[in-house]
User: Fold VWA domain-containing protein from Campylobacter portucalensis.
Amino acid sequence: MALDAYTYKNTFDIVKFGEKEYEVLFQRNLVGFQATLYRDANTNEKILAIRGTDAEVSFNGLDDILNDILLGTLGDNWQTNDLQKFYNDMVETGILSPSDKLTVTGHSLGGYLAQLFTIANEDKISHTYTYNAPGLLGLKGTLLNLFGTSNIKSNKITDILAKDGINFTNAMGLNVGEEIKVSGNSHAIKDLTQILYFYDMAISSGVNENAVTQYLSGFYNTPNFILKGSVASIASDTISQIEQIVGKANGANDIIEICNAYENNNVKFNLNLISPTSSVTSFFSGSNLSTPALYALVNLNPFIISGINSNAYSELERYKDEYSKNYVSDKAKMFKALMDTPKVGSYYDDYETGKKISYYTSVTDPDNTDEYNLTDTAYIFGTNKNDIVTASVGKANRIYTLAGDDTIKLTGGSNYIEAGSGNDTIDLSGIKDTNSVNTIYADIKDSKDDKDSGDDIIIGSSGKDIMYGGAGNDTYKAGDKDIIQDDDDGIGSVEFDGNLLVGGTWNEKEQCYIDDNNKNIKYTLNGNDSQGTLTVKFGDKTLTINNYSKEKQSLNINLAEQKGKEIAIVIDTTGSMQDDIDTAKQTARVIAENIFRTNSNQTQYSKISIVTFSDNSIKTIGTYTTISAFQSGINSVFIENGSQEYAMAALLEGMSNFTPDNGLSKEIYLMTDEPGDDNHRKSEVLARARDLKMGIAKMARSADLSQSDDNSVKINIISINSNLNHFKELSDQTGGSFFQPNSLSELEDALFELSNLGTSKS
Assistant:
């Protein structure tokens, strides 16, 4: 009502405050003086509202300000006569009866007049409420005599005062009623009204009055990064954030409208306020935060709303496993830091809210080329969307990117990373400091299941990296001293110092497994075949893979007791194969199943490459040592609709995947329906097939030229729906076979016999 008194009304106007309706019975709007008499349409209560200092409302404000100054210096006021006349006129015209009880309210100068009117007419007053009003200390006796009283104390007056900031008006004189000091730094009635609405909402939601004051005044008086501005803006910002959770204000965005909507719709919830003096850890600690508390922490809200169903909470529940115990602990540190003046060396960056503390100096490490910032530990918190983190802020960085397909690329420091679910790429190759120590969780660290796993890429630094890939088809690019700690499902691949690890066969003399691609790579397994620690040596460099399963051929690393075969399956994918590509792919599966059948119990080591050709697109799809990995590769083969078949070039591409002197017998299976367009290269193919080392020294990645392993290649031709007898020369001269089957089942029978022949001589 005190706020509404500043607005001009017509008699009989209806004013609504929330669900309540009030009728305007009388209003007087003189220069410097305005008062309105209202009647509660439901209870018939009469309320007298007296307008206060009008500096922000009209050009008459100068008169009101002068009146306030006179109150402070002389204890007198020009508007007392106006008030007396206003009241007398209402009685004389019958609008009021001399026996009517009034509720009186007023702000500033209006509150002063309300006090004066009340002490002179206590028998006519139910109660009086003033807001930031001057006191009556020093009031002249002549002014009291005007109202026929000399008593200046009343238990019917409540004086509500804003306690923060400088308020000259309420410092003038002594308030004669009960003083209630609330948070507030402004004299304006609008600001004070908003603050009181906040008090009412908070108290009705379970917060005591002192806690509300500590919250509002605490944020106003304490330098912080959470809530800034005036007390009214702090209250307004808090209500807006609360409504994002509650969502029951029907689109209202003003603090008064939101609070009225809650009251009108009977919206109930429990509220905890976190003030700058609160213990943050008391709100955000433990291994299992409630959803309301977690939401407050994630969004850096200094309050917790509980006891309500919220769409915001339902959304958070979808990702609750992403927030590990370490995330909660580190985010609570950021929350605490935001509550206070930043300390030198502080760095926190929260992508969810956009809040950031950056108080550091950039320096260069004298021992290496890494540039970092002078901070003990930098904390970076991502979102459940696709985050990109490229900052290397300090010598120690703790990074959480949660769900989404995230990219983390760092160039310095020692790092602790939780990338969360999704298909993440973690690239630490830019870190050249060999003393760097990094721990990388590419999936949810504390996940209880694999539903949120992703296909991650983890690229290590020049230092020591501990890599946790979790579930999913993960790619590890590791270096010296690195540890692959726990790949939950064993699906994926490992590159060690640029070499793809495929496994190898047992060497009795060296008592280890020797890689069949690179003889300088050696594997030692400690433990049993179901689970153990695999140590991989490459020269003087070491990689450790924990929880490795030989039985499951974890990470496509196949350790076998005998040497098997090295196969290249070469498939024509030009347009003429449109009707036969599925037959070709099924034929490839039959070959692979026969070859890998002996791999399944680790008795033999074999590998198969897939090559496709169409026009000038001649490429290796991949090389595989397990049937599951091969299935993924063959499923990615499709028609490319070319018209030129460079079959000889494709055969040479297939042989480029073979490793000389690795003891594996070598074969190619070519599947095509056309005679080919580069048959002039047939002699080149035959020369290569007779001895891989002839003219291809660049391919002998680890060749020991003194060895006498068989480096010849058998070429098998599968002619699909065509008479390709000119290819038969290739199979005849290399000891291979030529097939022109009448049916797929006939071909499968022949392939079963063929692919189980020709084992290693060693």
About this structure: The longest helix spans residues 189-204. The radius of gyration is 42 Å. The chain has a mean pLDDT of 84. Residues 260 and 277 are 30 Å apart (CA to CA).
